[in-house]
Write a structure and sequence with these properties.
seven-stranded antiparallel sheet; two-stranded antiparallel sheet; 13 strands
Length: 235
């Protein structure tokens, strides 16, 4: 299997346009890599390895374990990654098909795979790509979510098109601001009536949105909060 095949394996179901946005290259440049008409530079290779947590030896040569954290297990001699690295981001864009595309990874947060498998029924590698971590910046959801808390989000499109009643989502407000709110929606004759509830009712009000029937909910609901991580001690 060639380098191009391994890049395609990592790309998975992402479109080429979505994939290359992660690395700031043109689609034609990527296609040349896949077709072996040109060879990527070290910056691209390093960026791919960091994003997907794969070994440079595997990506370049097809040698050794695929993931940096792969460990052999006794009994069946198979290899499986134990520690996954989820991207910590604060800004992103929405792709043409509603996919969340982050445009700046601040760090990677280590999370145990077996914990995610127990937390998310039906967890798969494809589902893993829909998970990211971001930081709460506003006080809309105090005391539940404090400013500075790290939040694990599930950005899969299916869940954003069919939100769960009363769950906390990162939403895009009418003024373009992003904030965490509890979401309730009702289907009406000409579309959707969406109610965005803050937990901090002292400082923030309930918002009502009306979306036409052709509106795509996933463009307003950016991700469902699964977990939050909070620092209690500062020294």
């Amino acid at each position: 299997m060639s380098l191009g095949n391994r890049l395609e394996e990592l790309r998975g179901s992402l479109s080429i346009g979505e994939f290359v946005q992660f690395f700031g290259i043109h689609k034609n440049t990527y296609s040349n890599y896949v077709k072996r008409q040109s060879f990527p530079d070290s910056r691209f290779i390093l960026a791919v390895c960091r994003k997907f947590g794969v070994s440079p030896n595997w990506l370049l040569l097809g040698a050794g374990p695929k993931y940096l954290d792969d460990q052999p297990f006794n009994g069946n001699a198979r290899e499986k990654e134990d520690i996954l690295h989820l991207p910590l981001i604060e800004t992103w864009v929405i792709g043409r098909e509603g996919t969340i595309l982050h445009d700046g990874v601040l760090d990677y947060m280590p999370v145990r795979r077996n914990w995610l498998e127990k937390t998310l029924p039906g967890f798969t590698d494809e589902r893993l790509r829909m998970l990211l971590i971001t930081r709460a910046r506003k006080d809309h959801m105090v005391p539940t979510v404090q400013p500075g808390d790290l939040v694990l989000l599930d950005t899969q499109r299916e869940g954003r098109d069919r939100p769960l009643e009363g769950e906390i989502y990162l939403v895009r407000l009418p003024d373009g601001e992003r904030a965490f709110r509890r979401v309730t929606l009702a289907e009406v004759s000409d579309g959707w009536h969406v109610m965005l509830f803050p937990d901090n009712t002292t400082s923030h009000k309930l918002l009502h949105l009306h979306l036409s029937r052709g509106a795509e909910l996933h463009r307003f609901l950016l991700g469902r909060m699964l977990w939050l991580f909070r620092q209690f001690c500062t020294g």
